[in-house]
């Protein structure tokens, strides 16, 4: 029984990492797909001539530096490791914007390696600037990217150099522009709780439009674990559709549709240069670690109490991977930390 429980935990942990990986890949595809398609030297020149300017112009609309923070100098070639807080946001018209996904990323451009440290959205921690403790994903609702960065920095002990936030709402028009996406729905999905938005997604359709895809992501009347799995399926289907239709030339238009739903303090030139640098080198190797924890309740509200051992190990990973003097062969392996016993990874949406 114990062995089966450990297998289930490991599967859930891997799926959580995969969700974070897919969100990261989606951002890279939106801002760097042109560079990926034109990754050969001669074609890369064509990208610079015909697409680079359009991409940079669209990225200007997403550039949103945090007040009080000076833009970091951009080198012609990024050689030093840098860090970024990746935020996956699902904001409805009648709800505050909370970051459903929080990933602390360490990028090492020189050796094409990326570390992703995932933080459960219900993690109980101090919200910097609010003088209280709460779910870590509430920091975005209280104070946007700045409060999220400050709170995660306090939680992990390391500030992030940049942030990137993407809202699922902005992907509705993208899906429609692509003519819909394929989703493996074999039974009607009905959102019927009295306090939830009402909708039905019919099973067995060859393609689903943007609103149906958004509803698929938002459905939450079974479990948060299944909702996380649906995020994974949706993002994977979106990426597959873009590549299958060979619509890379539409990247500037697709980015324009995201509009206010994609924000970052990375400058457009930094993103373009980094994308070309990463994607013309060897394929980036992405490693992940998820901070696990125990479920608990305070005043009837569900939280995750992060395991101290996991937080400590995450800090060690970040320090090791962020150090430019760390040789590739000396990078810590995220898989070295075994899964903790008795962890509760079911996180109810409240």
TrEMBL record:
Residues 334-350 have a biased composition (Polar residues). Residues 324-350 are annotated as: Disordered. Belongs to the LytR/CpsA/Psr (LCP) family. InterPro entries: LytR/CpsA/Psr_CW_biosynth, LytR_CpsA_psr. Residues 98-243 form the Cell envelope-related transcriptional attenuator domain. This is Transcriptional regulator LytR.
């Amino acid at each position: 029984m114990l062995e089966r429980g450990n297998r289930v935990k490991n599967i859930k942990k891997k799926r959580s990492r995969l969700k974070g990986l897919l969100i990261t890949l989606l951002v890279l595809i939106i801002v760097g797909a042109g560079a990926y398609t034109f990754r050969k030297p001669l074609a890369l020149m064509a990208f610079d001539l015909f697409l680079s300017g359009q991409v940079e112009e669209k990225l200007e609309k997403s550039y949103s530096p945090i007040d009080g923070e000076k833009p970091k100098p951009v080198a012609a070639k990024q050689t030093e490791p840098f860090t970024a807080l990746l935020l996956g946001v699902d904001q409805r018209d009648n709800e505050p914007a909370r970051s459903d996904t929080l990933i602390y990323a360490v990028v090492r451009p020189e050796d094409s390696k990326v570390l992703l440290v995932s933080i459960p959205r219900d993690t109980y921690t101090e919200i910097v600037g609010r003088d209280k403790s709460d779910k870590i994903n509430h920091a975005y609702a209280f104070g946007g990217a700045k409060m999220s960065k400050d709170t995660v920095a306090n939680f992990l002990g390391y500030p992030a150099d940049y942030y990137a936030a993407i809202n699922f709402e902005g992907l509705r028009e993208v899906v429609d522009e692509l003519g819909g996406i394929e989703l493996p729905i074999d039974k009607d999905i009905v959102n019927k709780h009295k306090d939830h938005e009402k909708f039905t997604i019919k099973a067995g359709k060859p393609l689903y439009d943007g609103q149906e895809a958004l509803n698929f992501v938002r459905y939450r009347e079974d479990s948060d674990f299944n909702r996380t799995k649906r995020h994974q399926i949706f993002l994977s289907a979106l990426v597959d559709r873009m590549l299958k239709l060979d619509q890379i030339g539409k990247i500037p238009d697709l980015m324009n549709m995201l509009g206010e739903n994609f924000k970052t303090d990375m400058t457009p030139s930094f993103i373009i240069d980094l994308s070309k640098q990463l994607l013309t080198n060897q394929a980036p190797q992405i490693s992940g670690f998820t901070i696990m924890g125990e479920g608990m309740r305070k005043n009837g509200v569900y939280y995750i109490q992060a395991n101290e051992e996991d937080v400590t190990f995450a800090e060690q990973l970040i320090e090791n991977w962020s150090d430019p003097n760390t040789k590739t062969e000396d990078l810590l392996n995220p898989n070295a930390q075994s899964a903790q016993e008795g962890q509760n990874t079911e996180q109810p949406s409240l």
